[in-house]
Design goal:
Structural class: alpha/beta
Distance between the termini: 31 Å
Radius of gyration: 18 Å
Number of helices: 7
Strand order of the largest sheet: 2-1-5-4-3-6-7
């Protein structure tokens, strides 16, 4: 698996089912997220088990992501037609409903490969040749700032993705770093020996 944190997010152009219901053959990541924060999250397959809970959880939080200026793109190896069929399947029948973000179709598996999360053997626990359950937070300059990969049976916490975006935006705006367990509105830390000491003096017991 590649580590992309601190590097340019690999660009891609592929078919996709957009959040407005449109199907396109030439969705491009770089042009879509230019000047914006973004989350690119991969999942193994449509019409599976843990995956729909994650995609619905992401959709429930779309208003929060929009307020943060975040573009959300889901990716799997399924076609955009299959993505669309899943979106048109009611939630109580195993579908995801009309999620409001783009689902990109990695038909030749090159996107997952370029992000370093394409499975290649049965030992991983994933179906071979699918994407791992991976999330990438990308800043306004197209640089990956966070990368998290879960094992197949473990669904992601989408609130953690919001926290990471809020933390990085806070750092960019204020220059303070975010200690363990930081959430928006909590105390942050001024980089440096004195800043660390001052923070720990007041907040070590809360860690």
């Amino acid at each position: 698996m590649s580590i992309l944190v601190g590097k340019k997010a690999p660009d891609f152009t592929c078919p996709a089912a957009l959040g407005n219901g449109e199907l396109v053959g030439d969705f491009n990541l770089a042009s879509t997220i230019k000047g914006k924060y973004a989350i690119v999250f991969f999942y193994p397959l449509d019409f599976t088990f843990v995956c729909p809970s994650e995609l619905i959880a992401m959709d429930v939080r779309m208003e929060e992501f929009k307020k943060l200026g975040v573009e959300v793109i889901g990716v799997s190896i399924d076609s955009h037609f299959t993505h669309n069929a899943w979106k048109n399947t009611p939630i109580n029948e195993g579908g995801i409903g009309p999620v409001k973000y783009t689902l990109a179709a990695d038909l030749d598996h090159t996107i997952a490969q370029n992000y370093g999360i394409l499975t290649g053997d049965d030992e991983s626990g994933y179906p071979a040749g699918t994407a791992m359950r991976a999330s990438f937070v990308i800043d306004q300059d197209g640089i990956v700032r966070s990368q998290v990969v879960n094992d197949e049976p473990i669904g992601r916490n989408m609130d953690e993705l919001i926290r990471i975006v809020e933390g990085y935006q806070f750092f960019k705006e204020n220059g303070q770093v975010c200690p363990a367990g930081w959430n928006k509105g909590k105390a942050a830390m001024t980089p440096g020996v004195e800043g660390v000491a001052a923070y720990l003096k007041d907040h070590a017991g809360d860690l």
